[in-house]
C-alpha cells in the first residue's frame, strides 16, 4: 500500500551518493508540487501529441518505487486522460482535428485499451521499466530517422478537405495504440502520431491534434478499467490532472507556432533520453 501523504521529493545529498527522499509534511506544498508537474508534463505532451505519460510514468517510477506497475500506469493514465481532453478542446477550437478519423480510430482503441489495462499487472517492476524503455527507444529512432531527412514532406501543405487515408490501416494501428496506452499508461500518441504522419500522410500539426482527440477517448476507456481494478492513486492523480488541464491549453498554443520539424525533433530527443534512462535504471542489462 502506498502512502497518500506526506510528499517525497528527490534529493542528491545523502551519504551514499545515490540520492534519497525528503519528507515535506505540508499538504499545500504537496498539491502545488504535483500540480506544477502535471502542468509541465501536459504542456510537453500536447505539443508533441503524445500525452503527458512520457513524463508521468518515469517520474512516478522514480518517486514512488513502492508502487506496483499497475498503480504507476493507472495513476498516469488518469492524468493523461485529463491532458488529452483539455488538449482536444484546444485543438478543436483551432480546427486542426480530423473529426471523422478521430471518431473511427477512437472506437478502434476500445478493445486494446481494455486488454492492456487487464494485462498491466503482469509486469514486475524492473521488467516494466525495461519494456517501457525499449518501446520508447524504438519510437525515438523511428521518429528521428524520418524527421531528419532533407526537405519538408509534401503532405504538410494538405488541408482537411484534401486529406485521404486508409481506414483499415488506421483501425489496425488504433487497436494497438489502445493496448499500449493502457499497458504503459502513456496515452499511445507515440505510436499514433508517427503512424498518422508516415503511414497515412497526415500533416504534422493535424496528426498531433487528431491524436489528442483519439487519446481523449482511448484513455477514458483505460481509466475506467483501471478504476475498477483499483489501480489509481487519487492523491497524486488529482493534482497532476488539475495541472494537466491547464498545461494542455498552453501546449496547444505553443504547438500552433512551431514548425512541423521542430515538433518532431523535440519528440525524438525527449523520448530517446527517457528511454535510455529507463533501460539503464532497470538494471536488466547489468
Textual characterization of the structure:
- The protein is mostly helical.
- The protein has helices at 27-48, 53-63, 69-93, 99-119, 125-147, 167-184, 189-199, 204-228, 234-257, 260-282; strands at 7-11, 20-24.
- A two-stranded antiparallel sheet has the order 1-2.
- α7 (189-199) packs antiparallel against α8.
- The longest helix is centred in the first third of the chain and has 25 residues, at 69-93.
- The two termini are 29 Å apart.
- 51% of the residues are buried.
Quick structural overview:
The protein is mainly alpha-helical and 286 residues long.
How is this fold's topology laid out?
Blueprint: E1 7-11, E2 20-24, H1 27-48, H2 53-63, H3 69-93, H4 99-119, H5 125-147, H6 167-184, H7 189-199, H8 204-228, H9 234-257, H10 260-282
Antiparallel strand pairs: 1-2
Helix pairs in contact: 1-2, 1-3, 1-9, 2-3, 3-6, 3-8, 3-9, 4-6, 4-8, 5-7, 5-10, 6-7, 6-8, 7-8
Q: What is the typical, i.e. mean, pLDDT?
A: 76
How many E-type strands? 2
Order of helical and strand elements:
EEHHHHHHHHHH
Query: Helical segment tally?
Result: 10
Major sheet: arrangement of strands: 1-2
The gyration radius over C-alpha positions equals 18 Å
- Using the alpha-carbon principal axes, give the shape: globular
Distance between the termini: 29 Å
| Residue share in β-strands | under 5%
Unreliable segments of 5+ consecutive residues: 1-6, 10-21
By secondary-structure content and strand pairing, the structural class works out as mainly alpha
Q: Bin the helical content.
A: over 70%
What is the makeup of the main sheet?
2 strands, antiparallel
Amino acid at each position: 500500500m502506498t502512502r497518500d501523504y506526506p510528499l517525497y521529493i528527490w534529493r542528491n545529498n545523502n551519504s551514499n551518493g545515490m540520492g534519497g527522499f525528503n519528507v515535506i509534511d505540508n499538504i499545500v506544498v504537496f498539491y502545488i508540487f504535483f500540480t506544477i508537474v502535471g502542468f509541465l508534463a501536459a504542456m510537453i505532451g500536447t505539443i508533441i501529441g503524445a500525452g503527458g505519460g512520457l513524463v508521468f510514468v518515469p517520474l512516478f517510477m522514480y518517486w514512488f518505487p513502492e508502487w506496483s506497475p499497475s498503480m504507476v500506469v493507472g495513476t498516469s493514465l488518469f492524468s493523461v486522460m485529463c491532458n488529452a481532453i483539455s488538449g482536444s478542446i484546444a485543438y478543436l477550437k483551432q480546427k486542426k482535428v480530423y473529426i471523422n478519423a478521430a471518431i473511427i480510430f477512437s472506437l478502434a482503441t476500445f478493445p486494446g485499451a481494455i486488454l492492456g489495462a487487464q494485462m498491466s499487472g503482469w509486469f514486475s517492476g524492473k521488467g516494466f521499466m525495461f519494456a517501457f524503455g525499449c518501446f520508447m527507444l524504438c519510437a525515438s529512432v523511428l521518429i528521428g530517422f524520418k524527421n531528419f531527412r532533407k526537405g519538408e514532406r509534401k503532405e504538410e501543405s494538405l488541408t482537411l478537405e484534401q486529406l485521404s487515408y486508409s481506414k483499415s490501416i488506421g483501425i489496425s494501428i488504433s487497436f494497438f495504440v489502445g493496448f499500449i496506452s493502457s499497458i504503459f499508461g502513456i496515452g499511445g500518441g507515440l505510436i499514433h502520431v508517427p503512424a498518422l504522419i508516415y503511414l497515412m500522410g497526415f500533416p504534422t500539426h493535424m496528426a498531433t491534434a487528431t491524436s489528442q482527440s483519439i487519446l481523449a477517448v482511448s484513455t477514458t476507456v483505460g481509466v475506467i478499467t483501471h478504476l475498477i481494478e483499483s489501480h489509481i492513486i487519487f492523491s497524486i492523480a488529482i493534482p497532476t490532472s488539475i495541472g494537466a488541464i491547464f498545461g494542455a491549453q498552453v501546449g496547444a498554443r505553443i504547438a500552433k507556432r512551431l514548425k512541423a520539424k521542430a515538433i518532431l525533433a523535440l519528440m525524438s530527443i525527449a523520448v530517446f533520453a527517457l528511454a535510455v534512462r529507463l533501460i539503464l535504471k532497470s538494471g536488466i542489462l547489468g
